[in-house]
Amino acid sequence: MTVLPREFYLQETCAVARELLGKTLVRQTPEGPLAGTIVETEAYLTGDPASHAFRGPTPRNSPMFGPPGHAYVYLSYGVHEMLNLVTGPVGVGEAVLIRAAWPTEGLPLLRANRRLPPDAPAREIASGPGKLAQAFGITRALFNGSDICNPSGQLMVLDAPPVPGEEMVQTTRIGITKGAESPWRYYIKDNPAVSRR
DNA sequence: CTCTGGATTGAC
DNA sequence: TCAATCCAGAGG
């Protein structure tokens, strides 16, 4: 499998969010590889009041305005790290939040990172953005602003066959107050790792 | 400088 | 239903 090229992230942000479904998130760690199938995403667009980039560039959101194919990682509620993939050309502040993944490789280490028991079901490992970042060991210190198109890097997304349209669902985003009506959340129908509340 | 409010989660 | 726990960003 090949690493998704930078051009992939230059498509319209909603298209990127949709097409990321089914692709493979890979984290190389000193203890071995971690991987999972992306099953849930959200798009954050220009002019979107829910986006960190809504009021223009700031120190925190600067990766969103940088080149596509880089990570934007931030701390939510003072507790959880969130992984976004930057889309669009330099100067455009858009990104896709990776909300959930179905673990496929390195399950013992993923569980250990999450402090789950060794027999915890796979669906509990990365069924939410904070859980996903914790499971994959993704932190601001390690990955904010880092290039995710480098095949020899520690974080990347591998190409995979597209998910059939009838297996995709598009709905409103989760956990936001502003821009709550916009249907920019995408997930794979019936996948147990999709977040819920 | 102070203050407010989250793109969440897990415990109560 | 609520606290945990941090800090960006707005307003003075």
Structure characteristics:
8 strands, DNA-binding, single chain, 197 residues, 3-methyladenine DNA Glycosylase, Chain A, alpha+beta
Q: Explain this structure to me?
A:
By secondary structure, the protein is of the alpha+beta class. The termini are far apart. The protein has a single domain (6-188), classed as Roll (3-methyladenine DNA Glycosylase, Chain A). Strand 1 (24-29) and strand 2 (32-44) form a beta hairpin. It has helices at residues 13-20, 62-65, 107-114, 129-135, 140-143; strands at 24-29, 32-44, 71-76, 80-86, 95-105, 155-158, 168-171, 185-188. Strands 1, 2, 3, 4, 5, 6, 7 and 8 form an 8-stranded antiparallel sheet that branches. 16% of the residues lie in helices and 28% in strands. The structure holds a DNA duplex (12 and 12 nucleotides).
List the helices and strands and how they pair.
Layout: H1 13-20, E1 24-29, E2 32-44, H2 62-65, E3 71-76, E4 80-86, E5 95-105, H3 107-114, H4 129-135, H5 140-143, E6 155-158, E7 168-171, E8 185-188
Antiparallel strand pairs: 1-2, 1-6, 2-5, 2-8, 3-4, 4-5, 7-8
The protein binds a DNA duplex (12 and 12 nucleotides) through strand 3, strand 4 and helix 4.
In brief:
The protein has 197 residues and is an alpha+beta fold. The protein is built from five helices and eight strands; from the N terminus they run αββαβββαααβββ.
